[in-house]
């Protein structure tokens, strides 16, 4: 992959999905970096024939969110008016100031944006309704209390579409400021909340990433983005595990799924949680060796995919998190050779929940695995 930009597609007769990963070039100030990234982003959209309505999701990873946020917000107002925009303080590990991941659905006449608010985007595609939600905090408190606030806000937002956290939340991305000090409070609050609403090891959890990252306000100890989908039959959702390779997360007292598959009548989406170098007993493998950890992480991701009808070539985007950005060079060289060439990915600075984990990788895959009992992803409305 070109380390500064790449995109992938999943095409079929009803709708196409496009994922983009762009990192700004080194040696530019922030305004120059932003113009560099947005310019190349627009070039790809023109090249691929993608219009504004196809734009669904963008996440900006910034090297200095406190100083850069006002400049970014003043530049992307048109994007925020039409799409879901997430902004996180996670410096690109390869030396630029901005890393961008973006997602488009190209389905003229088959997709309708129902509602756009500062914190949500709701999209109707056939009988399905997907909603992206940003967690909203009312006041600065501990990571434990903020986690309670964020999930209460999430439950309120999705209830407008008759959705619940138990039945409809497919994926969460949780960012924790100073993760070594604040992660446990988030984990404890999430576990308590899940017990109350029926998310347990006997039912299921939610695919998730919990990683170090800074929210838009310095008082935000916890930030969260979520994806909710309504219109699915319960049988369309599969909670993925590979116990021969990775233990269940509840074995070490955390509460998320390793991955989740959503199957439609014409494809399947795979939401791969943040994955690290772990074995079936829950041990951290290869302490102090980031390359060996990267190798094992890819083995674990491949195991999750292969057991449920997908391959590494089906990956459409990856986000790589490094605890120590000084290792970005060797990790970059390894991944350039280890990953299929068609996968776009970005690499950012983000400490993992356990200090000895030096790298974590999350991703989204799409395969042709389908169940014709159900409507396609974007069938005619």
TrEMBL record:
Pfam families: Ribonuc_L-PSP. One of its GO terms (cellular component) is cytosol. One of its GO terms (molecular function) is deaminase activity. Coiled coil: none annotated. It comes from the Bacteria. InterPro entries: RutC-like_sf, YjgF/YER057c/UK114. This is Enamine deaminase RidA, house cleaning of reactive enamine intermediates, YjgF/YER057c/UK114 family.
